[in-house]
Amino acid sequence: MIPVEVRPGDHYPAVIVGGGQAGLSVSWHLERAGVRHVVIERESAAHEWRDGRWDNFTLVTPNWQCRLPGYPYDGPDPDGFMTRDEVYAWVRGYADTFDAPLAEGVEVHRVDRRDDGVFVVQTSAGTITADTVTSATGGYHRPITPSWAADIPDRVVQMHSHHYRNAGQLPGSVLVVGTGQSGTQIAEDLHLEGRRVHLAVGRAPRVARFYRGRDCMTWLADMGVYDVPAGVQAAAKRAATNHYVTGRDGGRDIDLRVFATQGMRLHGRATGISQGVLAFDDTLAANLDHADSVAESIKNDIDAYIAREGMDAPVEPRRAPVWTPPSGPTRLDLAEVDAVVWAIGFRADWSWLGELDVLDANGHPVHERGATAVPGFSFVGLPWLHTWGSGRFHAIARDAEHVAEQVVTASQGALAVG
Fold first, then answer.
1. Contact, 375 vs 367, CB < 8 A?
2. What is residue 242's three-state secondary structure?
3. H-helix or E-strand spanning residue 71
4. Cβ atoms 53, 100 nearer than 8 A
């Protein structure tokens, strides 16, 4: 890694905004192609892995899937799951394996494109220009909380999952709202610490950790599932919630029904507060059934793959539900709650893109494998950028290579014109 100072008036053939794994991966390719560039990072390289995860966080994908350009995982546990600090060290170490020109502590405020095709990049260190700009900031920027969170009494501690670190931050009984990967794992973290946990269950799907002798995600990778392009369903797939599972303690299922038998109180989707009482709708049973049906359908696909390939794999019986919720909506007096963790996702913030015509009417990026209608501007590191593997370690190298090829071509074209 080479520390770079951004100076007003500087011009670069390529600017990459974001110093996480996606931005660094594009930088690796540009270095090899001899394209002068800078990676601009508001905080520090890979900081989200350290600053945006809880203490007991682990990857949910096996370590062998961690492969960046020229930098595959080569640790002692390829089928294991790196912890938060291990992931941070691994990604941060990547920048040290090549001469990544990294400007840390610099924020990009706005990007515009002049009539001559040159990009004007306004940063906290001054304004620079570039022939190409690549957004590698991901799509999760602003934590979401519902408007009615303001009706929760002041005595109840409220925290978004992005800021949760451990049970010691929160008093007493905790309500976790949301059952994506973060919500279910945080609920488990609190549960294992002996806390009274209420969990508002959404429609997120789940997947078994292991099936028929192997990790389910390894099966899916071998089956090519992560390589299937998003195609015409791209928008819907990009909005879909990831399957919940955990890599903690070597990896295991997250079965909310099991948590219920152990004392965790499950509710349907939280709908609002009235007179100090939190209401939940009557979707709990349907949401649990949906999560189970997705997990079972994945097992069906694995069974079919094993049969089709004539593979020898141990036979495993299917799991029956261990708990069924009572019918009807539930209510929870807020007197029984001391803290709330909001795990209902993030909202993208593309305000720094200025007047660039790269978003649709709903504010979502419009691109084809990262390429936009604005010549020289690209996205990388987004969920479903091209396939299910996009946005995760499994396919970042492939996506970065494709985007980098576009950047190289555009920057060379600009050089020829200049």
1. no
2. coil
3. strand 71-72
4. no
Environment class of 375 (CB within 10 Å of its CB; exposed 0-12, middle 13-18, buried 19+): middle
Alpha-helical runs (H) found in 96-233: 181-192, 216-222
- Give the DSSP letter of residue 315: -
Which has the closest alpha carbon to 385: 230, 153, 214? 230
Tokens of 405: 């090829």
- Other C-beta atoms closer than 10 Å to the C-beta of 200 total 29
pTM of the predicted model over 0.90: yes
Provide the residue-wise pLDDT of the chain in tens; the chain has 418 residues: 899 999 999 999 999 999 999 999 999 999 999 999 999 999 999 999 999 999 999 999 999 999 999 999 999 999 999 999 999 999 999 999 999 999 999 999 999 999 999 999 999 999 999 999 999 999 889 999 999 999 999 999 999 999 999 999 999 999 999 999 999 999 999 999 999 999 999 999 999 999 999 999 999 999 999 998 887 555 555 556 789 999 999 999 999 999 999 999 999 999 999 999 999 999 999 999 999 999 999 999 999 999 999 999 999 999 899 999 999 999 999 999 999 999 999 999 999 999 999 999 999 999 999 999 999 999 999 988 999 888 788 899 999 999 999 999 998 766 655 5
Strands (E), 136-259: 142-143, 157-160, 174-177, 197-200, 210-211, 214-215
CB 274 within 8 A of CB 329: no
Outline where DSSP puts E strands in 126-168: 126-135, 142-143, 157-160
Distance CA 334, CA 149 (A): 12
Q: What are phi and psi of 297, to 5 degrees?
A: -65, -35
Euclidean distance between CA atoms 340 and 334, whole angstroms: 10
CB atoms < 10 A from the CB of 336, how many? Answer: 13
